[in-house]
Specification:
Layout lengths: L1 H6 L7 H18 L4 H50 L9 E5 L7 H11 L3 E7 H12 L4 H4 L11 E5 L11 H4 L2 H4 L6 H12 L4 E4 L16 H22 L8 E6 L14 H23 L2 E7 L5 H4 L4 H11 L9 H11 L11 E4 L23
Parallel strand pairs: 1-2, 1-4, 2-3, 4-5, 5-6, 6-7
């Protein structure tokens, strides 16, 4: 073994030294044959001292190496013990989060903001300009206090609330009639580029970007009846807005940051009634997620993912008109049909995807829908009812 070789003074860092050592011993043996006995004894003593010194040096080196390995092993054991005793927490302390698209306390955006805050992050939100006054008033008057409660009984606080219309990149893009609209006129710096500037001024940068935006003015129309303007409006508000947000936020996001969005199964399956180009917008959003994962990953070291969430009866979703039917359908046909989907489950998944625990996850569409996406057959279909069929 290596230890025996070292004790004999034979082990060496490389083969060349071994060869030199062997040649040296042969030379010594040849020299000894021609030396008087006194000289031989003296030579033996010198050789013994040299051998002992080399052996001691190598033993000391091994001892140091063993000590380092032992310390590393102790640290690993200690780390494992900490995780084993305290679980594997999602830790977002010190992280700066911006959630675009929060206008009440019912939707996915709010749930994500709450989960991020619970994990220790500093959370700011962006609210559509016309809805900002109502949102801030409700927040100030305590109407959201019940849903702000964290497990320890405290209320999570928003670090900032920014007016935002992600349909416009700069103020030069805003039409005059929108600028002069009284709902917009009393606010300033609400385009995507301006909100990015404000976040940099207020927080110095951003670690997590969440896109929780979607709008299709003709969502109730079948695709064959959707106008060009309606289709492009859905794409602009629901998918390109994510591209724009990352374009402007990316430069202020340090390496290791994360961005995410919310999509829906209509991107890849036919959902009659989810029209106006919204299914196309969600398909674009998922494709953009993969492309942005590559581009933002290479350019800034930012991870990009999206969550495909199941149906939830939020205020925004009810505007579609058939959300209750979709919830009932999921409750009957999803693999986990006995449990309702909660916004908190999307929130906790988002917190995980944006945390260091998911540091190698990017370009992913993560399904959080009780497994409904995996189904290829409706279990409550009348086609499966054989009670009225002939034997």
């Amino acid at each position: 073994c290596v230890w025996d070789m070292m004790c004999r003074g034979m082990a060496s860092p490389n083969n060349d030294n071994d060869s030199q050592s062997i040649l040296g011993r042969r030379k010594n043996q040849s020299t000894q044959a021609h030396l008087p006995s006194a000289h031989i004894q003296t030579h033996h003593k010198k050789l013994h001292r040299r051998t002992m010194a080399v052996t001691a040096k190598r033993m000391a080196h091994l001892s140091i190496r063993r000590g380092a390995l032992g310390a590393a092993k102790t640290k690993r054991t200690r780390d494992v013990a900490v995780h084993a005793g305290g679980g594997l927490p999602i830790d977002l302390r010190g992280k700066r989060v911006f959630v675009a698209g929060v206008a009440d306390d019912q939707g996915f955006g709010w749930a994500i903001a709450k989960a991020m805050a619970q994990a220790g992050a500093k959370v700011a939100v962006g609210t559509w300009v016309p809805a900002l006054n109502i949102f801030e008033t409700s927040l100030r008057r305590g109407k959201f206090d019940e849903s702000r409660k964290l497990p320890d009984g405290s209320l999570f606080e928003l670090a900032a609330v920014y007016p935002l219309d992600a349909g416009y990149d700069t103020m030069e893009d805003v039409p005059e009639d929108v600028k002069n609209n009284k709902r917009f006129a009393k606010y300033d710096r609400w385009t995507v580029s301006e909100v990015a500037e404000r976040i940099k001024e207020d927080f110095g940068g951003l670690d997590i970007l969440v896109h929780s935006l979607a709008n299709g003015p003709e969502v109730s129309k079948p695709l064959l009846e959707t106008s060009r303007n309606g289709y492009l409006a859905a794409i602009s508000a629901s998918s390109y807005s994510f591209v724009s947000l990352l374009q402007h936020m990316g430069p202020i996001m340090p390496q290791g940051s994360a961005a995410m969005s919310l999509t829906y199964i209509a991107s890849e399956r036919i959902i009659p009634g989810y029209g106006g180009g919204m299914s196309s917008a969600k398909a674009a959003l998922e494709s953009d997620t993969r492309v942005l994962a590559y581009e933002a990953g290479r350019k800034w070291g930012v991870r990009v993912n999206t969550i495909s969430a199941g149906p939830l009866g939020s205020r925004a979703a009810k505007a579609i008109g058939f959300i209750d039917d979709m919830i009932n359908y999921s409750g009957v046909n999803a693999p986990l049909h006995e449990k309702d989907l909660s916004a908190g489950e999307i929130g906790s998944t988002a917190a995980f995807l944006c945390s260091p625990l998911a540091s190698a996850v990017t370009g992913v569409t993560m399904y959080v829908d009780n497994g409904l996406h995996a189904m290829g057959l409706a279990t409550d279909s009348k086609a499966l009812d054989r009670s009225n069929q002939d034997a």
